[in-house]
Every structure is written in structure tokens, then in C-alpha cells.
Write a structure and sequence with these properties.
Blueprint (H helix, E strand, L loop, with lengths): L3 E3 L2 H6 L12 E8 L3 H12 L4 E4 L15 E2 L7 H8 L1 H24 L5 E3 L2 E5 L5 H13 L4 E4 L1 H8 L5 E5 L3 E3 L1 H14 L3 E3 L4 E6 L4 E5 L4 E9 L6 H4 L5 E10 L14 E4 L6 E4 L5 E9 L3 H22 L7 E11 L6 E4 L6 E5 L5 H16 L15
């Protein structure tokens, strides 16, 4: 399944960073990970740290699935605001899901420091509304986050305009957040894992999987066999073909990045990440050379033809959306792209076992903060592989 249309900036900027071999022989291993995006890479990192021998495979070139299309905002906020999520799954689980994402940002920063990856920055995050009718909504969300222990500040229309040149009425500023290039980070995490003994293969498509009580047998398109004690599926939005159950709705999201504006001052204070309350929401961030990323305008995924067809129109609309919100900071689009992403009913990922596929764990970080959920999934699955109880596994289980 093709997941990306257009020219993702991470791929344009970095190119093909490393070469990985294709599997050309039968193989036996303790754990095999399917999926060479950020979820698979972080899972491999955690298994290495736990002393678990593993092999990672991907049907594409490493990182060229949805990972290269990611705009790489590291936020604790889910697609559903906290005060609404509490009504859906209860106070404890909602608060805990947000808390886990907040902790994941700190842990990702620690991993990036350990592997000496420099392509990240800590950033504040601004959630804003342009609708006067949402005063209660924003206050409810502010207090939900405040009570949950997050460092947040409620901003007025005047403050939003003075500090961020933003045409908005209400805002919630969070101190916790970061940006990172998911594509290059995936490669650097895998390079670390390779040095620790992990085998990584790309361009190795799995044709079939046989699930047994004592092992899992994978067959590649070329006829090679991988025999493993356990399987971790980190294939993301293509997982429906493995699970055989509708657990996610596929949408396509669009993004643009401006030309370099290195000669200008920053477009808004502290280069905070910004996203609004609309559905679908619009999000904005800045990157190197004072470029601006704008994303949103989501549509239900129909097929790749429509993704390509709508790209130019959506790119133009996103540029206009930005100009309406920040009229004092005009941008000119240089690259635009689209990617497939998945939404679950409660905005939570699916992590853990599924009864139809024995000896298999799933790391499926669906939603707008898939990178932080990838970290959460890696931790939970590592615990389960080691036979340790993880009290958070129930929140993201297939049985919920």
C-alpha cells in the first residue's frame, strides 16, 4: 500500500541516509519486528536495552512509509482533548494516557541524547481557538490539564496577538513538547541497534504468516522463511490485513513547508508548535532556516489517486489558512506532501496481543501523536515479552 504522495521535506532534506540489505536466505531469531518506521525502530531499541535478540524487516526501503511523511511534532496532547476523553474512557485512563505521552517526550529526548542525535529541539505547544463560542470548551480543557499535573497557561486574545501574531481568541500554552525529524531519527536509532547486534533488512515483503503455539513462521515474497519465537507487528496503517478486524479509519492529511526565511526573524515567539480546535485541526510549526510547516485539511482516504489529485489544491488552501491566522508573516510554499494516517474511535493506539494471532504483539501508534505512542508501545511490549506485568497495557488493549 502506498502511504505518501508529493515531496516530504524530511526525505528531501536527508535523502537515503543508509543502505540496508535485503533478506536473501532463511533465518531463525528470537523476536522478529515487522516495520522499519519509527515504531519498529523504537521497539528494537527497547529490546536491545532489555537484552532481547531481534531482527527487523520492512517491505520498503527503511523509513519510506508514513514515517517520512510525519511532521514530527512531539506532543502529549491526543487528537481528543483531555476533558472529552475523560467522558469517553474515564478519568483515570484518560489522565494516564496523557501522562504517558508527556513522559514519552522526556524519554525520547533521553534516547536522542544517548545516541547523540542532534536533530531535535524542545518546544512549547499552543492549543488555540478562533471561535468565541468555545470559551467553556477551552476553560474545561485548561482545568483538565491543570488538574492532571501539566504546566499550562490560559492565554487571552490580546496575549495571542501580541506574543504570537495570531488571530485567535483563546489559547492554552503548554511547556512540554519537542520537534524531531522522525525519518532521520528512525535511521539513527536503527544504526545504534545494528551496532548492538540487531539485524535490519529492508525491501523484504512478507507474503504469509503462520501462527503456531510455539513459534511464528513468516514467508517472504521471494520464498525465504523466517522462524521466530515471537513476532512484533509495527506496520502501522497496513495492519488491517494482518488483524482481519476494523480497528482504524484511514484518512489522508496534507502538509506544506515554506521556502527558507533565514533572513527573517522568527514568525512568532519561541517558535512554539501550534494547533487549533477545528475538526480536522490545523497545525503549524517552524523548522531550520525559519521555514514554516503547516498541516491539516484531512480527508477520508479513498485511494492514492485522490491523494495525488488533491495535493496541489490542498497545499494552496493550507497556505491561505496560514495567511488568515498570521497575516503579518506571509509564507511561500516550496514543498507539499500528503500521508495516510489512522484514527481510532478513542484516539488511542492498539498495543499488545490479539487473540487471533498467537505469539504476536502489536505496536500501532495511531493518531496525531504516533511518535510518543510508539515509545509507549515499545515499553509495554518489552515488559510483556519479559513476562512482567504492565499496568498500562489494558488502556491500549484490543479488548477495550
Amino acid at each position: 500500500m502506498e502511504l505518501v504522495a508529493g515531496y516530504p521535506f524530511g526525505l528531501i532534506k536527508n535523502g537515503l541516509l543508509y543502505d540496508y540489505p535485503k533478506l536473501v536466505a532463511n533465518k531463525t531469531c528470537d523476536v522478529v519486528i515487522i516495520g522499519g518506521g519509527i515504531s519498529g525502530a523504537l521497539t528494537a531499541w527497547h529490546l536491545v536495552k532489555a537484552g532481547i535478540e531481534c531482527t527487523l524487516i520492512d517491505g520498503r526501503t527503511i523509513g519510506l512509509g508514513s514515517t517520512c511523511a510525519s511532521t514530527s511534532l512531539l506532543q502529549y496532547e491526543l487528537d481528543i482533548p483531555l476533558h472529552q476523553l475523560k467522558k469517553t474512557i474515564g478519568d483515570y485512563k484518560a489522565n494516564r494516557a496523557y501522562e504517558l505521552c508527556g513522559d514519552a517526550i522526556d524519554k525520547l529526548v533521553n534516547i536522542m541524547n544517548e545516541i547523540q542525535y542532534k536533530g531535535f529541539q524542545k518546544r512549547k505547544s499552543l492549543f488555540f481557538s478562533t471561535h468565541k463560542r468555545q470559551k467553556k470548551f477551552m476553560h474545561d480543557e485548561y482545568w483538565a490539564r491543570k488538574i492532571a499535573g501539566f504546566d499550562v497557561h490560559l492565554l487571552s486574545e490580546e496575549e495571542l496577538h501580541q506574543n504570537y501574531n495570531l488571530n485567535a481568541i483563546y489559547g492554552i500554552l503548554s511547556d512540554k513538547g519537542a520537534i524531531a525529524d522522525a525519518y532521520s531519527l528512525t535511521h539513527e536509532v536503527l544504526q545504534y541497534c545494528i551496532r548492538k547486534g540487531v539485524n535490519v533488512f529492508d525491501r523484504t515483503k512478507i507474503k504469509s504468516i503462520d501462527y503456531h503455539d510455539d513459534r511464528v513462521i513468516l514467508k517472504t515474497k521471494e520464498g525465504h522463511v523466517i522462524m521466530a519465537n515471537q513476532l512484533i507487528n509495527a506496520t502501522g496503517y497496513e495492519v488491517v490485513s494482518f488483524v482481519g478486524k476494523k480497528i482504524v479509519d484511514l484518512d489522508c492529511t496534507y502538509a506544506i513547508i515554506s521556502e527558507s526565511q533565514a533572513e527573517k526573524n522568527e514568525a512568532w515567539k519561541d517558535n512554539v508548535m501550534m494547533w487549533n480546535t477545528d475538526d480536522p485541526y490545523l497545525y503549524m510549526s517552524s523548522t531550520d532556516e525559519n521555514r514554516v510547516i503547516v498541516g491539516g485539511r484531512d480527508e477520508p482516504f479513498i485511494n492514492m489517486k485522490t491523494m495525488h489529485t488533491y495535493l496541489n489544491k490542498k497545499s494552496s488552501l493550507l497556505e491561505k489558512d496560514f495567511a488568515k491566522l498570521l497575516p503579518c508573516s506571509p509564507i511561500k510554499t516550496e514543498f507539499g506532501w500528503s500521508g495516510v494516517f489512522g484514527k481510532t474511535k478513542d484516539s488511542l493506539p492498539y498495543i499488545g496481543n490479539y487473540f487471533k494471532t498467537p505469539r504476536t504483539f502489536y505496536a500501532l501508534g495511531f493518531g496525531g501523536n504516533g511518535i510518543t505512542f510508539s515509545l509507549v508501545a515499545a515499553e509495554i511490549i518489552t515488559d510483556l515479552l519479559l513476562g512482567r506485568k504492565n499496568s498500562d497495557a489494558e488502556i491500549f488493549s484490543f479488548a477495550r
